[in-house]
TrEMBL record:
Signal peptide coordinates: 1-28
Domain Flavocytochrome c sulphide dehydrogenase flavin-binding residue range list: 366-432
Keywords: FAD, Flavoprotein, Signal
Organism name: Candidatus Dechloromonas phosphorivorans
Protein name per the record: FAD-dependent oxidoreductase
Pfam family, one: FCSD-flav_bind
Keyword Signal: yes
Recorded superkingdom: Bacteria
Sulfide dehydrogenase [flavocytochrome c] flavoprotein chain central domain span: 177-290
Keyword Phosphoprotein: no
Single GO term (MF): oxidoreductase activity
Domain FAD/NAD(P)-binding: 46-158
Length: 433
């Protein structure tokens, strides 16, 4: 796959591949049509969406664009603005600020007529078809979409809030990202930065390796003689193996030390010591990313029927395999696709398409296609990329990679680095604008 092919696929995030499945109901949205919610689809229903992240914001928008004004959409989000995880590794080297990664919800309300509710959903009544919020209020629904992202296991030793602030994961962009940036800046030359990577599945497969590169690149230029030790619970690099093997062994040789098969027994935040299968390691900064599981609302409401951690779904509709009428999208869902913002956007469109069809008494699209793209900075001005295309396989009932349509960049480049921002802006606009 060349760069042109990659761009063609990456730009599909803007068009939405599932839109093709809507032919016969409403025409697919194009950028020129965005903001026009049709009034004449004849389809009606109440949809509540839990979580206004990459998946939830997108599904809310496309339910209105494809369903029309008869489909009332209520989006419940606990935060006032969305903090993008994507590009948040660049906060660590000072190239982005957290403020520049904030996305508001006002477009979703004013352009698409989505009702916004700021609150925390605590309970789902799948029989009575309503959700309860922490403030005691209830919202009824005909279809519910749950998109809460992920939560983390607790690493032994990091049970308290104080310990977690001293040893941040910074794997949900926000205050912890700023803490980690400040810790990096406070490091002295010749310091040791240790990061831990959890076993798969975790969000953004290349993300931790990208972070190791961004941090190593910054330390090399600003805190000479420092080291980045990467303790990976996986047996090897889980994504973009060519790019990251080259980054670790050539570009950042002598700075990054990569150790696969790592087991973290405990972390002592007071002495900044990790107890691991490689022995005890002392560090100036520890960035410990714990194992992931689906967001709490999934676990608490009986939707985590895959190893007790993830929500099983039918990928034709993203309907939960544990409860009818409830759809789960984004990182919380157990599918064969990566846990990534681009894929969350794609799942949201397949789900919106399916809900509109179901409300109209029709069957879902039998052959959905999704795509994923990801750019990984290797230095402060070069990046590599990764892409994959998935198609529905009726035999296994799962999304499978399309042969020949996936790949990674043959080399990092400055062009890739510039294109990363175009891709990011397009994706975020498609979800939030
Ligand atoms: C450092 C880093 C870099 C990344 N880079 C990339 C990249 O380059 N490309 C890419 O595709 N992906 C990337 N990702 C992954 C991407 O950010 C996630 O896959 C994506 O955000 C998942 O979307 P989501 O909607 O499932 O969850 P989220 O985006 O986390 O959204 C979940 C939302 O639900 C809300 N919520 C949760 N529970 C409740 C509740 N009970 N009530 C109300 N609201 C609730 C939360 O507040 C949150 O706003 C990266 C991740 C990280 C950490």
């Amino acid at each position: 796959m060349n760069r042109r092919d990659f761009f063609r696929l990456a730009s599909m995030a803007g068009a939405g591949v599932s839109a093709a499945g809507l032919s016969g109901l409403v025409s697919a949205a194009t950028p020129a049509q965005l903001g026009t919610v049709p009034t004449n689809t004849g389809i009606s229903g109440r949809v509540v969406v839990i979580g206004g992240g990459m998946a939830g914001a997108t599904v809310a928008k496309y339910l209105r664009l494809w369903g029309g004004t008869g489909v009332s959409v209520t989006l419940v989000e606990r935060e006032t603005t969305y903090a993008s995880n994507i590009l948040s590794n660049l906060v660590l080297n000072g190239q982005r600020t957290m403020t520049s990664l904030q996305f508001g919800y006002s477009n979703l309300a004013t352009r698409y007529g989505i009702r916004l509710v700021k609150g925390d959903v605590t309970a789902i009544d799948s029989v009575g078809h309503s959700v309860s919020l922490a403030d005691g209020s209830k919202l009824p629904y005909d279809r519910l979409v749950v998109a809460p992202g992920i939560d983390f296991d607790t690493i032994p030793g990091l049970e308290t809030a104080a310990a977690q602030a001293k040893v941040p994961h910074a794997w949900k962009a926000g205050p912890q990202t700023t803490i980690l940036r400040n810790q990096l800046v406070a490091m002295k030359p010749g310091g040791v930065f240790v990061m831990t990577i959890p076993a798969k599945p975790y969000r953004c497969p290349p993300g931790p390796y990208e972070r190791a590169c961004v941090v190593a690149d910054w330390l090399k230029k600003n805190r000479v003689g420092s080291k980045v030790i990467v303790l990976d619970a996986n047996p090897g690099i889980t994504a973009e193996p060519l790019a990251f093997a080259n980054a670790f062994n050539v570009v950042h040789k002598g700075v990054i030390e990569y150790r696969p098969g790592a087991v973290i027994n405990s972390i002592d935040a007071s002495t900044m010591t990790l107890n691991t299968n490689f022995g005890n390691l002392k560090a100036n900064v520890i960035n410990a990313i714990p194992a992931h599981r689906a967001g709490k609302v999934i676990i608490d409401n009986g939707l985590a029927n895959v190893s007790g951690r993830w929500a099983g779904v039918d990928v034709l509709t993203y309907q939960s395999t544990a409860a009818p009428g409830i759809h789960v999208i984004g990182d919380a869902a157990a599918t064969t696709q990566p846990k990534a913002g681009h894929i969350a956007n794609q799942e949201a469109k397949i789900c919106a398409d399916a809900i509109v069809r179901l409300l109209a008494g029709r069957s879902p699209d039998p052959s959905p296609i999704t795509n994923s793209a990801c750019y990984s900075p290797i230095t402060s001005d070069t990046a590599s990329w990764l892409t994959a295309v998935f198609a529905y396989d009726p035999v296994s009932g799962s999304m499978q990679p399309v042969p020949g349509a996936s790949g990674e960049a043959t080399a990092r480049s400055q062009d890739n680095y510039k294109e990363m921002f175009k891709w990011f802006n397009t994706l975020m606009e498609d979800s939030f604008a």
